[in-house]
Amino acid sequence: MSEQEFDVAVVGAGFAGMYLLHRLRRLGFNARVIEAGSDVGGTWYWNRYPGARVDIESMQYSYQFDDDLQQEWRWTERYSPQPEILKYARHVAERYDLRRDIQFDTRVAAAVYDASSARWTLEAEDGSKITTRFFVMATGCLSKPNWPQIEGMDSFAGPTYHTALWPHENVDFTGKRVAVIGTGSSAIQSIPVIAEDAAEVFVFQRTPNYAIPAHNAPLDKKYEKKVKDRYADFRAEAKQTPPGIHGRFRQGGALEVTSAERKAEYERRWANGGLSFMGAYGDLMFDQDANDTAAGFVRDKIREIVDDPDVAELLCPTNIIGGKRLCVDTNYFATYNRDHVHLIDVKERPIEAITPDGVRAHGKNYQVDALIFATGFDAMTGALTAVDIRGKGDALLRDRWADGPSSYLGLAMADFPNLFTVTGPGSPSVFTNMLPTIEQHVDWIADCLAYMKDHNYTAIEATPDAEAAWWEHVQDSVADGLKATTNSWYLGANVAGKARVFMPYYGGFPNYCRKCEEVVADDYEGFAFA
Ligand code: NA7
């Protein structure tokens, strides 16, 4: 980074950083985006593993801030593959001439607040620095890869991959023996594609996952036209649903109907595919018996699809459905009917070691030519605590969050003035369609900075009371239901040593937006200006 001064520094050139830059420029701010990768795209820049695809329908997983953009852009598939989403991000960068204010290949290592000047100094890993009045971490919820702690981790002699750090060049598994560790969404998307070429695939499964078929297909042109003819209304309707996704969400209880009616409803949703499966009944995440009906339906589907009954049982999840993020698959379960795809259960007896030529489990060395970690992320907080962020009185964010994060609206933290987070812990983020959520956050932050400019304020900070009250509300939002009963990355349970605190806000997108609007209407209630 060159030694320059900016009004706003934004870390991350994913969809959040890109839109924020666009908004800030229009408001006349001198802004700089700093990005570790070599191009825009964030999640879609890094996660290039075979089969990577969004689990929200393409017509909804895009920006809506510019109607010309959303009318012009043509998606080709119902669920966009990673290369097409990256192409879209690049198109946006070019359309709004964003790259000239983005510094690529630069990873921010530290940020220090100086109270006397009310400015931040950001330092990159290469030692270069910039100073800025405002500092926004637009670093994403799932961006810090999680590597497991397994004996001999670095001993494998062949190529090692992480799904979240996939190489840019084509990786050819033709004729190779491949081990995949993990069975989350990334593994579920990539295993069927890898199995197309590989000679043998060994999947090491700790926890089986529920997956609903995507039924991906070329985007129906008639549907595209129908949506585009009323895109604004379509988007507005989506924002009224808890996840901010247009779809059918029913209010009734699963046990209020006969078992035949329930089965028919699940069959319709299975045939339609995707995440809307969980919208079948309003109590699936609140009532154990209701949840059991949906979970049992999916388990029966797995038993129908998978030929070998023992393998099918191993693939059947026993935890609640929806406790972990539901996966959306293409041929995942059927892939285990192929003779060269092997499932190794490592739940009771964990992987013993990574060896120079494979993976040792159950006392056996599974020899492979390539090793893939599909082991997820240090979610929600990982990218924020990876930077040495020091606020007032030298408060270090990483230490502050040692027992779990706390934030006002997922936007700002007490003692860290002029720092904003986009989709931070305490916001609905990962429970929603990320694109509209990102736009809502960015608009809120941009409007706030414009307000400060108008009022000649130089510093803003969340008050400790407002932050504590919001965080209590975030915890209350999951207190009654089943959501927090599963060991998931929402709880930090997937990272060794991480505090178990529920991080995203489960109160729904409409309630969250209302709260953000009320805060503004109330002269930024819960924030102190200087
Ligand atoms: P996930 O969903 O966090 O999945 C990671 C997987 O890796 C999961 O099955 C883990 O099992 C497994 N894992 C982690 N450590 C180990 C060890 N030591 N041994 C065996 N298995 C292990 O990450 P993804 O990248 O698939 O998806 C993340 C999100 O991206 C997803 O929710 C979508 O929103 C998109 P575990 O379940 O912890 O027992």
CATH superfamily of the largest domain: FAD/NAD(P)-binding domain
**Distinct bound molecules:** ligand NA7
Q: State the name of the first-level CATH class of the largest domain.
A: Alpha Beta
Radius of gyration, CA atoms, in whole angstroms:
23 Å
Chain-averaged pLDDT: 97
List the keywords.
530 residues, FAD/NAD(P)-binding domain, alpha/beta, five-stranded parallel β-sheet, binds ligand NA7, eight-stranded mixed β-sheet, 2 domains, 16 helices
Secondary structure layout:
Layout lengths: L4 E7 L3 H12 L4 E4 L8 H4 L20 H6 L9 H14 L6 E2 L4 E7 L4 E6 L4 E9 L22 E3 L14 E5 L3 H13 L2 E6 L5 E3 L7 H9 L1 H8 L20 H14 L15 H18 L3 H7 L11 E3 L2 H4 L5 E5 L7 E3 L2 E4 L2 E4 L2 E4 L8 H4 L2 E3 L6 H4 L18 E3 L12 H21 L5 E3 L1 H13 L32 H13 L5 E3 L1
Parallel strand pairs: 1-2, 1-6, 2-3, 4-17, 6-18, 7-16, 8-9, 8-16, 9-12, 10-11
Antiparallel strand pairs: 4-5, 5-6, 13-14, 14-15, 19-20
